[in-house]
Amino acid sequence: MKAAIPTLRLLRTTPFRLALLYLGLFIISVGVILGVVYRSTAGFLEEEIGATIALEVAGLQDQYRSAGLRGLVDSVRERSGYSHTNSIYLLTTPGGVILAGNLSGWPDATAGPGGWTHFKISDYGGVNNRPSTAMAVSFILPGQFRLLVGRDMSELDQLRGRMVVSLRWVFLVTVVLGLGGGLLLARGAMHRIEAINRTTHRIMAGDLSGRVPRGGGGDEIDRLAGNLNAMLDQIERLMTGMRQVTESVAHDLRTPLSRLRARVELALIRETDDPEVYRGVLQDTILEADRLLATFTALLSIAEAESGANRKALEPVRLADVVRLAADLYEPVAEEKGLTLVTDIRAEPTVRGNEQLLAQAVSNLLDNAIKYTPEGGRITLLLEGVGPGQAARVTVADNGPGIPADMREKVLERFVRLDAARASPGNGLGLSLVEAVARLHDASLRLEDNEPGLKVGIVFPPDAG
C-alpha cells in the first residue's frame, strides 16, 4: 500500500515548483491572449460605431449645404423621431437653444481628439435598465450653430461587461486546472520517487536484492530506475564476489599456511646441525610463500580490473604486439613440456585498452592451455581482425581434456577448479582474471568446444577499435 504524501511536503517538491512555474507562464500567456481578444472585439465594435457616426455626420453636412439650416433641422427631427433608435442627435443655436434632437441638453463633457466625446446619458436607462452612456462627435456649423451626432453605447457596454465576466471565469478556471494538474503531476512523480527511496532504504538495511520498480512508460524516471538497477546489480555482484573471495581465501589459504607453519615448526623441533636440512626447509618455505603471493597478486589484479579504475587510462594498444610477446614468453615453456605452440596473426588490429592487463590475460590463457594439454598436444594462438560484430578476437585453442559445457560459467568464478585440475599447481584465479579484464575492455569471454579440447576467445566489440 502506497504511503500518503503530506500536502505541505508535496508543495515543497521540485515537480510541483516546476508545475507552478509553468502555470505562471501559462497564465501570463492566457492573460495576454484574453486581453488581445477583448481589445480586438471591443475595439472593432467601437470602430464600427465611429465609422457609422462619421457617415451620418457626412450626410447631415451635405443636407446643410444643400437645404440650409431649415433642411438640417427637419432632417435631425426626422431621424430623432425614429422608434427604437440608438442614435443620438442634438442641434442648438449659439446661445444653447435646442432646435432639434433627442437629448435634453448639451452634455457636460470635454471633447477629445477629433471632437469625439464619451459621456453618460442617465444613471438608469438604455438596455436592460443599465447605466446608459454614449459616444458622439460634435462640430460647429456656420453661424455658430452646434451639431452633435452619436450612438447609445449601452449594448456595447453590456457586451464588454459580459466579456470581462467570461474572461475572468476563463482565467479562474485556467488557474484552478493548472494548480490541480500541478498537484497531480507532483503527486505522481513523488510516488515514483518515494518508491526509489524505499528501495534505497531496504538496500541500506542490508537487503541487496531490492530493485527500483519501473513504470513501463520509458520516460526519464524509468531510465533512471534502469540505471540504478544496473548499478545495484553490479554492487550485488561485487558484494557477492567479495563474500565468495573471503570464504575462498579463508578456505584455500588455510591449508598452505598451516603447511608452511608446520614445516617451519618441524625444522625448529629437529635437533640437527646439518645446514642442508635448514636450507631445504627454507627453500620449501620460499616456494610456498611464492604461491601465496601469486594468489594475492592475482586477487589484486582481478579487483583492479573489476573496479574500472583503469578505464580512464585506456589507450590505443596494438594487439599483435601483445600476442607476439605472450607467444615469445610461453613458446619455450610449451617446448619443454613437449607441446607445439602455433601463433597465427592474421591482422594488426588496435583497440583501446590497458596493455599490461591484456598481456596478463593472454598469458593466463596460454598458461592454462599448456598446463592441461597432454604431452604431444597442440596449442594455437590466433589473432583475427574486424569481423561480424567484432573489432578483434584473440583465441587460444588446445586439444586437452576441455571443460564440460555445464561448467563453463562456473570456472569463471574465483578459486573454482575442476576435479581433474586439482593435481596440477594453481589457485583457480586464471580465468577469473581473464573474465575481469575482458569486462574492463567491454569485451566478451567465450568458452567453446575445440573437439577435442577447449577454445577460449576474447572478442572485442566494434566500438573498442
From TrEMBL:
State where the protein is found.
Membrane
Q: Where is the HAMP domain?
A: 187-240
Tell me where the transmembrane regions lie: 20-38, 169-190
EC class (word):
transferase
- Residue span, Histidine kinase domain: 248-464
Write down the EC number: 2.7.13.3
In terms of Gene3D superfamilies, this protein maps to: 1.10.287.130, 6.10.340.10, Histidine kinase-like ATPase, C-terminal domain
Keyword Transferase on entry: yes
- Keywords of this protein's UniProt record, alphabetized? Kinase, Membrane, Phosphoprotein, Transferase, Transmembrane, Transmembrane helix, Two-component regulatory system
Recorded catalytic reaction(s): these are: ATP + protein L-histidine = ADP + protein N-phospho-L-histidine
Per its UniProt record, what Pfam families does this chain match?
A: HAMP (PF00672), HATPase_c (PF02518), HisKA (PF00512)
Q: What protein name does the entry list?
A: histidine kinase
